[in-house]
Amino acid sequence: ALTIGIVGLPNVGKSTLFNALTRNQVLAANYPFATIEPNVGVVPLPDERLAKLAEVFGSERLVPATVSFVDIAGIVKGASEGEGLGNKFLANIREADAICQVTRAFADPDVVHVDGKIDPASDIETINTELILADLQTLEKAIPRVEKEVKIKKGDPKLLEAMNTAVAILEKGTTLFAGAADARLDLADVASLQLMTAKPFIYVFNTDDAGLLDSGRQDELRALVAPADAIFLDAQFESELAELEEDEAAEMLADAGQAESGLDQLARVGFHTLGLQTYLTAGPKEARAWTIRQGWTAPQAAGVIHTDFERGFIKAEVVSFADLVEAGSVAAARAAGKARIEGKDYVMQDGDVVEFRFAV
Ligand code: GDP
Fold this sequence. Notes:
By secondary structure, this protein is of the alpha/beta class. It has 16 helices and 12 strands. Bound molecules: guanosine-5'-diphosphate (GDP). Guanosine-5'-diphosphate (GDP) binds at residues 8, 10-16, 73, 106, 108, 111, 206, 208, 234-236. One of its GO terms (cellular component) is cytoplasm.
């Protein structure tokens, strides 16, 4: 499964946030999650469509899609016995598919800040500089080799050009994710190098209540990290929320004037940042959201349910969620001509409600 690595300076609230993520998953114990690992928080993706689907189909339970977060800081703490701590840290970031950087924006004088002041911009620069330097090192090692290969017509000149463009972006102190568009760098061209700052970034600003409410300040921070997504949450509040039953949590959220918990926002943004989407299936047993990549075809999507479904794929009956709810049942949707039979080249759309036909 694709994972999002959580990074940040010490004392910014990473553990607090991660504990909220994992507690959230423990409470959601009726979801059939895969193995629970100590450094991985698997959180359900909020999806209001599932409850509606369950109504239409009389489904017994809801099974949402999930998003996995890895506590990279936790891995580092555990690995502190061994040598090469820095390298291990970077190796763990390399394995993640996206980076979630937690930054302190809460004031609390009782919690020491490593640099002695609350300055999100400077904190982000500190972390990103490390990642940028590591990427520059990777490129500086690889460029001479590719140059040689290009000279003897064995290398890819396009790769070399992309690598040099990447160096120019990084030397300006910009992550590749943030700088690629302006420099006309197609990140796919340097994908083979597994550069860390080429991964999608999400920034979580760990705020106190006042910070949550100040929209001017939020806009400043949003602009600072664009085009990455910014999420504002109070990690301590989220960890308290995660301990409550669903209805109590909803009440506490409403009292705080928030429409959605920070963790729900994080799951949604994370899912989107990873380039994922869902399709839906439903029956009397369960209404379920399945995770696929954007652009996947019907047989690829069927393969997520079972590899046999992909191999033996014949066709799919697809109704859009909106059409299905409007019609009230699959039969009514069929009668209204809203159920389509799609073949193996069909590209899945978000919210397709699907039944696959296959032969084994
Ligand atoms: P980490 O080192 O980044 O994992 O940070 P921790 O999660 O251990 O948090 C460091 C300290 O800050 C702890 O004492 C937390 O209780 C506190 N803390 C975390 N989030 C918040 C917050 O949103 N507001 C306040 N006031 N304190 C927080």
